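anyone seen this seq b4? input:
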Amino acid sequence: MYSIKGLKKKILFGTLWLYLQQFLNVGLLMGQTIILARLLDPVHFGIIGVFLIISGALESFSNTGFHKALIQQKDISDESLNTAWTVSVVRGIILLSLILIFSEIFVIFLNAPEALNIVRMLGLSFLLKGFFNTGTIYFLRDLDYFRQFLWKSLGTLFNVLVSIPLAFLLRNEWAIVYGILASDLAVLILSYFLHSYRPKIKFEYESFIKLFKFGKWIFLSGIIAFFVKQGDKIFITKLLGESLLGYYMVAWRFAKIPELLTNPFPNALFPAYSMYQDNTKFIKEKFIETLNIISLFVFPMIGGMIVLAKPIIVILIGEKWLPAALSMQILTGAMGIQIIISLSHSVFNAKGRTDFGFKMGLIGLVIISIFIYPLVNMYALEGAAGCFLLLSTVRLIIWKIEIYKLINFSIRDMTLMILPISSTFIIAWVIYFFSNIVDYYNPYSFIGTVLASFLCYLIIILSVDKFLGLGLLQNATNIYKQIRNKN
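predicted toks r here
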């Protein structure tokens, strides 16, 4: 086990690799979205969305949680790795079989029969994922984030390199299909190339029970998470059709950009939290540090995306996608709340509180069950987005209660978030105020506005932080010093 000082350095440089992975993946996927959105129509994205709904259901109803269970264990045996891989292979075969047998029933239920062949072909994705090498668990467990970076980023690269040329040739949703399958195949091959462990078809009952005891809440959370994450898309498909689902998917793709940039923190910290799961002081310190850094950089991005949603859509993917603008604004605001909550999942899992995800999902399920149908029926895409915003707000209240119980995380510990949030509101209001004067739809004016806004934001942050001595930038300074000393 690492010392706390050594672990902090390992986390730091691991997080930097994960951030590089996220920036590369986000850049590649956004580039892919921009090009495909200009070549394809909303209905093509909607048809792929139908498969994502079905695959989400099957994934959620069969999620074992063994991956996180292996990371959380202090010692991993070959028996556990082999048992986890055997279950994964069997799961992949079963899911592919279910797709082939029941896909016609699924697409008829969703009123999307034209998606049948797409759903059947993409069923191969389950089979490929089932054979991923469980040895890759050591990338995260041993904080070997460089190989994790190679593994995930090269898979995304294959997706982009296959889908974009095919989109120019085919001009339909099959380009996306082949890109997804190419990515899964590349990730499968790389999982064996990058790690020497070779799993075997072996099943040990004791190892299975040990893994299942940890993963049972993740399994139950996955079932509920499906209805929460896909409930809006199901009702949009059934009530509004695949074209509007395509608009909604693109709105989600943009709204999730801030979340993708924050994902490295939970992934990097979960193994460390697990190593020091009995040291509550260390966990709380690291969590507060993470929350402060995230609020400093992510909230201005969220504010800018909300205010400049329409210019972003018109400049990047064209005017035909403008119906997605308001949904994107609402969903981006909701994602700001979800980011705060998601950062704590690794804390709860490391402390053995895997029921937290289940509780959050249960809250979401109740809200979705009550509000999604009337909101979609009355307000279409904006109603679905509004339901997610309501869900996120209620979750935030419950989260605050639970995190206080777990690590004594109080309102006072969140005070450093006030400055980034208030500064973001000021800058966003200024951008909105000048919207009738500045032509934000002009690419040069848009870029100039973004750069000027970010500069003003930094000036406000630096000035107030120095004047009041809040210490908001201390974490960033410490990180810089550690990098300099390392080099």
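The mean pLDDT is 84. The two ends are 24 Å apart (CA to CA). kinda curious what u guys think
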